[in-house]
Structure formats: C-alpha cells, structure tokens
Design a protein that fits this description.
The protein is an alpha+beta fold. The protein has 14 helices and 16 strands. Helix content is 35%, strand content 18%. Strands 1-13-10-4 form a four-stranded mixed β-sheet. The protein has a three-stranded mixed β-sheet with strand order 3-2-16, with no helix packed on it.
Length: 368
Amino acid sequence: MPLFFPDTNVNILELKSILTEALSEYPVMHLRPWDVRDQDYNKFIVTRLMSGRYSLKPNISSQGLLFHGNSSVAKSKYSSLTEITRGLDDHSEKQIHWISENVRRADFELLIKSFPLYKMLSEGVNIDDEILRVEIPYGLAHSYGFVSPFISFSSDLDVACFYAVTEFVNGSFKIKKDGMGVIDVIQLSSPFSFNSGLSTLGKQLFVRPGINKEFLCLLENDCDLYELPHVDGFVFNQNESQSQQIFDQFHGGEDLMPQTDFLAKKLKTFRPNVVSQKAVKKNVDSNNHLGATQKSVTNALGANNIHVDRDFNPFFTRQELKPVYSNIKAFWDSFCSDLVFGPEWSDAWVEHFRCLYNDPNYQKCFKL
C-alpha cells in the first residue's frame, strides 16, 4: 500500500530530497559480476538478455531504485489494459476489448517496422556472427500511449517528479495546482532479471523511451501495483509554485515528449476508431492457433465501434522520413553516441556497429 504522511505537510521538493537521500544510501544489489559499471548516469548499457535479444539499458549501475510519478492518488493502481476491462463480468466483452487493443497495436507495429533502421535492429545486426537484436514493440507501444499491461518506471527521479505534478490534457501537460500526488518506488533487491515483471525499454531509435530512461513493470491478471512486495508509494501535497518550477525544468514536457519526434507526429494522424485491414490480418496470423479468423476479429472490432479501413496504410511515407534521412549519418551517430559496450565487445566490433552505414549488408537501410 502507499505510504502516507498524515502528520506532516510533505511537498514534492521535500519528498524529492527524502528520496534522493534514500537513492544514495540504498545498496546496489541488482548487478551481476559481469555487468558493466559506468560512472556516467546518462549512458545506456548494451545488455544481453536471457532471450538472446539486447536492451540499451539506462545506466543504473550505481543505483538500486526506480521511480514512477502520478499526480493523483488511489489506494490501488492497475495497468491501462486492466482498467478498460475492470467491472466487465462477461468474458466475451473483455475479449472484444482485448482484440480491439491488439489490432490497434498491430497498426503501430506495422508503422514502426516501416522505418528501415528499426526494421534492421528488430531483425538483428550480424557482425562477426554475433547478432545484436533490439526489439520490444509492445513496450514501445506502451511508451507512445497504447493500452498495455505495463506501468512505466524511470531511473531518473526528476522525470518521475515531473509526471507527479502534471496532467496530460488534450495533447499537452498542465500543472497540478492542488490535491495529492505520489511517487512510486521499486526496490531492486535482487539481480535485475530476477525482479519479476520488470524489463528494460530503454533507448530506442524513437526518442521517447530513452529520454524518459524508461523501464517497464508488468501487471498481469488484474494485478495491483501496490500488491507487489518491492513497491512503495510515497504521497505528497501538491504545491502550485513547486509544480511550476518542475514544469519549467522540463520546458513544459517538451524535453520528455518533444514535438520533433517523428513517430509521435505520425501517430497523431491515426484515427482512434479506425484500424487497417493489414492490422486485422496481422492479428489473425498471430492468433490462428486460437481459432481467430478475419470475420471473428472484424466482428469483435465492430462490437467496439471500430471500423476496418481497407485503404488505411499504417506506414511512414518517404516524405515523412525525409527529415530523418536528410542527414541519416548524423542520426545514427547520435543514436550510438551514448551507448556503452562491455569488455566482451572488441574495439573493432564496436567501431563496425557505430559505422554500420559503411557495411554493404546494411547500407540500404540508410537510404530511402
């Protein structure tokens, strides 16, 4: 359950000070002997996962806590996927919502894979028979506002504080002037891969997860965040002037959700109650072992007032990618600039990856 401060008037800056001290004192217990340690908090560690894929993990080699901010307080906290089906007793009604969100997300996945560099990393880069594959489409969809079973946590306390004092209303952030907010804290008390439900979203070719230093906490089967043994919620009183100070620190949220983000721009053209025929087919192909058909999926969408548009193509156009590809070398150099590779990577391998635009096998991905 959240930890309340009933006898004191704790505000966000006081709470931040308390948590900053806790962060400095909490022992680092999640590192394995071979994990990379780096002193630069702003780096991303190239980390091999048990699945064989890689993550570009925000550098938490010197800390043992992660943070989530919310500008309102509730005794329970659920994922957005649970929220849309809570209160529905009929399993078929729940299934209609699940199918609808899966098809919406299929459109998102078709979109991101139409960016050649994302497709390249999702399929894996082969250098000297080592495959570096970075792909977490469900987590990426969550970061861009799609319904999911996740709650985002950040390694950056300042980022959590921003979300704890703001609301996202009609496409922009507004400060919360009164009421109560909460900073939720995950304690990393065991090796990261042993922390049930936790995963890294981290740096991606699309900017939002990286600048938010984002991790994911999976809440399955109507799980309440506050039922997890390693989570505490710290409640504070909102203060308008302090909220404004934190709001200004992040330039009104522009630093965390920049207007220049070409994926976010494209998603604004998606219509909320329209999906593509291609997304329906993708969903059917993924679930045909469960008996899914074009008809059953289309009927479920119709029951949720979602229209299938056969002319809707969820892909980036050449024109939309032109600003990125006008200086694609600089884009890639920037993407690689804050990555840290472990000692198992030779200097030649790292240099090959950083200059991948010179590799004949991948040069086509750097051209429109």
